[in-house]
């Protein structure tokens, strides 16, 4: 996987699409460029009952993945979406930082 600009558990803002402006947490990475964001890209899915799985069926609301290019990390200090850069610390660790303020993201 390598270093990701957006990771599970990050606070992000959606910058494009029907949920533009919404803020949520990344619930999971689907693959290298799709993320599922809490409360975003909600769709209604018609599910048929499956007794083996114990699902009752009906209309289920779920979050579908969106492309990482449509989300930006939320910067709490500026309260705006921000871009992510990388820095190598003195102890050779590679960490993410906010582009606008140069603050570290992973401490």
Q: How does this structure look, described?
A:
With 107 residues, the chain is an all-beta fold. It has a domain at 11-80: SH3 type barrels, CATH 2.30.30.30. It starts with 10 loop residues before the first strand and ends in a 9-residue tail after the last strand. Strands 6-3-2-1-7-8 form a six-stranded antiparallel β-sheet, with no helix packed on it. It has a two-stranded antiparallel ribbon with strand order 4-5. It is 0% helix and 46% strand. It is elongated, with a radius of gyration of 17 Å.
Could you outline the blueprint of secondary structure elements for this entry?
Layout: E1 11-14, E2 23-31, E3 34-37, E4 42-47, E5 58-63, E6 66-67, E7 71-75, E8 80-82, E9 84-88, E10 94-98
Antiparallel strand pairs: 1-2, 1-7, 2-3, 3-6, 4-5, 7-8, 9-10
């Amino acid at each position: 996987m390598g270093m990701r600009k957006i990771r599970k558990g990050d606070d992000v803002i959606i910058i494009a699409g029907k949920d533009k402006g919404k803020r949520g947490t990344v619930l999971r990475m689907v693959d290298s460029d799709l993320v599922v964001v809490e409360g975003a890209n909600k769709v209604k899915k018609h599910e048929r009952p499956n007794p083996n799985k114990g699902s009752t069926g009906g209309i289920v609301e779920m979050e579908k993945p969106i492309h990482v290019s449509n989300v930006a990390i939320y910067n709490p200090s500026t309260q705006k979406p921000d871009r992510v850069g990388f820095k190598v610390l003195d102890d050779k660790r590679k960490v993410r930082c906010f582009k606008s303020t140069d603050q570290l993201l992973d401490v």
